[in-house]
Structure formats: C-alpha cells, structure tokens
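Homework help board

Subject: predicted structure for assignment chain

Our instructor gave us this sequence and asked us to write out the predicted structure in token form, then describe one feature. I got the tokens but I'm not sure how to describe them. Can anyone check?
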Amino acid sequence: MVVCRTAIVLAKQHRRIGRYAVVACCELRRDLYDRNVKDDRAHVIEQEQFVPLPPAEAFVFFADAHNLEQITPSFLRFRVLTPRPIAMAEGTLIDYRLRLHGLPIRWKTRIEAWEPGVRFVDRQLRGPYALWHHTHTFEPVPGGTLLRDVVRYRLPFGPLGRLAERLFVRRDVERIFAHRRDVIARLLGGAA
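My token output:
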C-alpha cells in the first residue's frame, strides 16, 4: 500500500486507530484524486502521431524525462531539475523549472502509471494548473507506433482561470504540443 504523509501523521497521533487512519486517509486521497481527474470542468487536449519505430523503442525515448528539454519550445526555458539517471517507475517524482509568460514556475510531477512499451501517466503535484493529468500511450500499428497524448487540465482561480483558459492558455498548450509534434517527427521520423 502507498501511504501518504497525512496518514502517517494520523497514525502516529492516534496509535489505537492508526491502521484505520492510514487506510481511510489514503482511500480519501485516492477518491479525491479520482474525482479531480474525472472532473467535468477539465479541458482535454488529444494528439496522435505516427513514428516508424516499434513501441518499445519509441517508449525508451519518452521514458527519459530529460528528453522533454529537446521537445519543449525554447521560449519556455524548460529544464529538468531532477538529476540523471531518473529511475522511472510508478511513484517517481520529477522536478522541472520553466518560464511561462516571463514568470518563473517550478513544476513537480508524479508518475501515476508505468507500463513499459505501452503507456505511462504523469500528474502535476505542483505547478500552474489545478489539474494536469497526461496519459501517453504507445499503440503498435503496421510499420511503427501510434503515439497518443491525452491531457486533462484545469486552471485554478475559478472564473478567472476559465477566462484565462479561453483567452490564452489553450492556445499556449496547443502551440507547445504542435512544437513537440514537429520535433518528434524530426527526431524519431514520421510525419508532423
């Protein structure tokens, strides 16, 4: 069982009900997370791209978090702060730094699912979004792999966040993914 920090504190403070506190707290956090990811207010970006590599080879490129620096637009000044090598697995935490519209941002993600050659999921723990849940899948197709990205995101600040999403955030995210698509085509082959 994965135990959250809050549950450990509860267990230490309430030794008689420790085990129940741990289970209840972890279940509550998982339930809140599930509801957050399935939130109807979340925006969705989906992208598919063919690369002429088998899924296992394509996966290796994306499994190296430091390759994000190559495929992210330079205007973001994106850097992976977690030192190499990053042992990728479910539960791995990765720290990044970037600039968004000139503002310095620290971003931390957690790998929520890890199935080598098939898919992985990263979720923002700290950063500019109230929700950022990115599923990467690697589907075998004749002649290569269909890369599929599905991002569910939501901004903080209620109505102001929704306004910002309409005015520029969605355009920014789509621009970032268009850039990624072009760079991936150049690095791994296939059409942009």
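Reply (TA_rk): Your tokens look well-formed. For the description, you could write something like this. The chain has a mean pLDDT of 85. That's the kind of observation they're looking for.
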